[in-house]
Design goal:
Number of helices: 9
Order of helices and strands: EHEHEHEHEHEHHEEEHEH
Oligomer: single chain
Structural class: alpha/beta
Number of strands: 10
Largest sheet: 8 strands, parallel, barrel
Strand content: 5-15%
Radius of gyration: 18 Å
Strand order of the largest sheet: 1-2-3-4-5-6-7-10
Helix content: 25-40%
Distance between the termini: 15 Å
Shape: globular
Length: 270
């Protein structure tokens, strides 16, 4: 297994009942000759508790690096108790199962607060999430917070927001996911993005290497194929090189196109 694997998001990869679709995520990774694979453990738009039998967990053991993506509905930053409290519970459930299958990390979006709320309250809710989990021994798998594309009240849209969030969670060992499409949409300079993030967090644990269908600063989260979007391909390659960590492609396309993207990226980074 390469030190810095190149993986692909497949999805959902598992059925809503936790079953494997046509061999599951490892079969999808094999079709694309990927070193790693990222997938959801349950419906990304639902609140269902993730469940995998012992046999299903065994089917996820192999030489492929696994990353789990938490459901999109999860928002531990929210000041709405009916969202924040179940989000915390679900975060813990997904982290437990992620650890059980040997995932290298679990990706979670930074979330947001309502327009009338102080974003500092959202950062404090993140601190409380980690603090309460620390009382139970901490998360059993590295929790990797991802930057997001839009929303002025988002916890991880711009660098100032990430700095505020990291003041709250950095001491708990939170990891960071740099999504290139999201950063581009938020108006970041991708030429310095890795250094800019590391100056705040001290780390970049995973890169979601995605091109964008829209101009820089659009606030639109619309991914494009690696070599077919608004972001110059060579700039994306340089982000991957500078980050020097695992990469996951979340680009649109079929298995054949993803295999071509992996080949392109391996060659460019060689």
């Amino acid at each position: 297994m390469p030190v810095h694997p190149i993986g692909v998001h497949v999805g959902p990869g598992l059925t809503q009942d936790g079953g494997m679709d046509d061999g599951g995520p490892l079969a999808r990774a094999a079709e694309m000759d990927a070193d790693g694979v990222q997938f959801f453990l349950s419906d990304p738009q639902g609140w269902k508790t993730p469940r995998l039998s012992a046999d299903q967990q065994a089917d996820l053991v192999g030489d492929v690096t696994l990353f789990v993506h938490a459901p999109y509905v999860l928002n531990v930053a929210s000041t709405n108790n009916r969202i924040r409290i179940p989000s915390r519970k679900m975060l813990g459930q997904h982290a437990q199962l992620s650890a059980a299958i040997g995932a290298r990390g679990m990706v979670v979006h930074g979330g947001h607060v309502l327009g009338t709320d102080d974003p500092a309250a959202g950062a404090d809710n993140w601190r409380k999430t980690f603090s309460r989990q620390a009382d139970d021994g901490g998360f059993p798998v590295p929790l990797l917070i991802e930057n997001t594309a839009g929303g002025g009240n988002a916890m991880a849209r711009d660098l100032d927001a990430i700095a505020r969030l990291w003041e709250a969670v950095g001491g708990f060992g939170a990891g960071f996911v740099l999504d290139t499409c999201h950063a581009w949409a938020a108006g970041w300079d991708l030429a310095t993005a890795v250094d800019d993030v590391r100056a705040i967090t001290g780390r970049v644990d995973l890169v979601h290497l995605n091109n964008s269908r829209d101009p820089q600063g659009s606030s639109r989260d619309r991914h494009a194929p690696l070599a077919d979007g608004e972001i110059p391909t060579e700039l994306l390659v340089e982000v991957a090189r500078a980050a020097d960590c695992p990469v996951v492609l979340e680009t649109p396309g079929d298995a054949a196109s993803h295999a071509e993207e992996i080949t392109l990226l391996r060659s460019a980074l060689a």
